[in-house]
Design brief:
With 191 residues, the chain is an alpha/beta fold. It has a single domain (3-186), classed as Rossmann fold (3-Layer(aba) Sandwich), CATH 3.40.50. The protein has 5 helices and 7 strands, in the order ββαββαβαβαβα. It has a 7-stranded mixed beta sheet, with helices on both faces. The radius of gyration is 16 Å and the shape is globular. The model is unreliable at 50-55 (pLDDT under 50).
Length: 191
């Protein structure tokens, strides 16, 4: 699989021209968006990862096999950002979400966390815009039975709020579990 970093945008007017379909990775800060992107593509360090929440502050575009873009979006919900940073994030996200080339959203979630109204509203808005895949990350941090219970609970909670889920995947980038099924759904060859 061929993948490379293309460009980044901090503001909506910096977004690149729409030339290829885009798969958008979105979720709260520190949920593992960059780690998942690297694991799916079997690249180390293609997308920058950090233990510090809120590190990704731009929309980062990565071309995959010259046929689509993976877009690593800035995380939301990190309380340490100020009003200016939040306004910049909102402006970037409003501009990005209006792009008609988005073919799917990967909504990443840590199964150890509960969702609040902000999470449900975002998932609902995304699912009305393009197919939404729930990707539970960091699944190595919970037992198998707890994971199954949390997965059912989160799916039911989202569906009860009107969110249209295409599918749900349980992933551990540490143990490399669940990646092949998600790659298959996304139409990616195994690395």
């Amino acid at each position: 699989m061929k993948a490379k970093y293309e460009t980044s945008a901090a503001k909506a007017h910096q977004l690149p021209p729409m030339s290829l379909p885009e798969l958008a990775f979105i979720g709260r800060s520190n949920v593992g968006k960059s780690s998942l992107l690297n694991a799916l593509l079997n690249y180390t360090g293609l997308a920058r990862t950090s233990r510090t929440p809120g590190r990704t502050q731009m929309a980062n575009f990565f071309s995959v096999n010259d046929s689509l873009y993976f877009v690593d979006l800035p995380g939301y919900g990190f309380a340490a950002t100020g009003n200016r940073e939040h306004a910049d994030w909102q402006e970037l996200m409003d501009g990005y979400l209006a792009r008609p080339v988005i073919t799917k959203f990967l909504f990443l979630w840590d199964p150890r966390r509960d969702m609040d109204d902000t999470d449900f509203q975002l998932a609902l808005a995304l699912s009305q815009r393009a197919p939404l895949v729930l990707v539970l990350t960091k699944c190595d941090k919970v037992s198998r039975s707890e994971l199954m219970q949390r997965m059912r609970f989160l799916e039911n909670a989202l569906k009860s709020k009107g969110v249209r889920l295409v599918s749900t995947h349980a992933i551990s980038t540490i143990k490399k579990s669940g990646l092949d099924a998600l790659r298959e759904e996304l139409g990616l060859a195994k690395p």
